[in-house]
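At this stage, I put together one protein's amino acid sequence and its backbone structure tokens, which the following lines show:
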Amino acid sequence: MSFDLENFENCSRQNGVRYWYAHEFMLELGYGTWQSFLSVINKAQASCARLEMDTFGEFIPATYADENGYEQRTVKLTRFACLLVTMHADARKPEVAAAKVALATVANQLIATRLSQNDLGRLET
């Protein structure tokens, strides 16, 4: 299975903000266990914090019902969070390598937009 940008876009959800469930995104990146993927999320959150961005606005704690109907703790990832997660994921995985290429087309624009929004917030404060 290779990362597909169109499928990625189609898997998003909207509730005031566009997001992707981390449990679903991990499968797109070729991760099989939540524990291994959670370490990638933690690294991505640390990068977000180093950029002085609202980590909880990009990585939103959530729950969802899995395929068996059980409530699972997960994280809602914004598009920027998905980009950060992909940057910290294992590039030896073919899905991750493909995701890095696919998301690179929007990365510079997304990063510039997020940083300028953050600067605007600091100016307003």
